Amino acid sequence: MVPPIMARISWSYPHQVFRLIPRLSPIDYSVLPVIHMLIYQYFRSWKSFFVANVILALGAAFIAEPIFVWIDIYDMDHWKSIYSFPIYIAKACFVKWSLEFMLSKANRSQQKPAN
C-alpha cells in the first residue's frame, strides 16, 4: 500500500513468518483490503463511508499499530501513529472516488445508443 522504499526508511517488521512471503503482507495485502471492501460495500454514501473509515483509521493507527509494536511485530523506526491516520483515510477515499469515477464512465458508455 505504501511504496517499499518509504516503508524501509520509516518502519520495519523485525520477524518474518515465512521466508518467501514479505513481512506482514497478510495484513497489508489481505486483512486491510478486505476491511476496506466491506466498508465500501456497506457504507454507500460518502458521509457514512468517511465516518466508517475514520473509525477504522483510529483503530488501526492508535490501537492496532501500538499493539503490534508492543508484541514486537512492528518497529516504528522514524514513524508515528499519527502519520498513519490520514493515510488510511486518504487511500480509502481515493479508491472509492476512483471506483465511482470508472463506474460512472462505464454507465455513461452503456447508455449511449449504438450506431
Percentage of β-strand residues:
under 5%
End-to-end Cα distance? 43 Å
Q: What is the overall pLDDT average? A: 83
Number of DSSP-assigned strands:
0
Q: How would you name the oligomeric state of the polypeptide chains in this document?
A: single chain
Radius of gyration: 18 Å
Structural class, from helix and strand content? mainly alpha
User: How many distinct folded domains?
Assistant: 1
Account of the protein in words:
By secondary structure, the protein is mainly alpha-helical. The protein has four helices and no strands. It is elongated and about 60 Å long. The model has no long low-confidence stretch (mean pLDDT 83).
Task: Summarize the model shown.
The chain contains four helices and no strands. It has helices at residues 4-10, 25-42, 46-70, 81-111. Helix 3 (46-70) packs antiparallel against helix 4 (81-111).
Write the layout of secondary structure elements.
Layout: H1 4-10, H2 25-42, H3 46-70, H4 81-111
What attributes characterize this protein structure?
single chain; mainly alpha; 70% helix; 0% strand; elongated
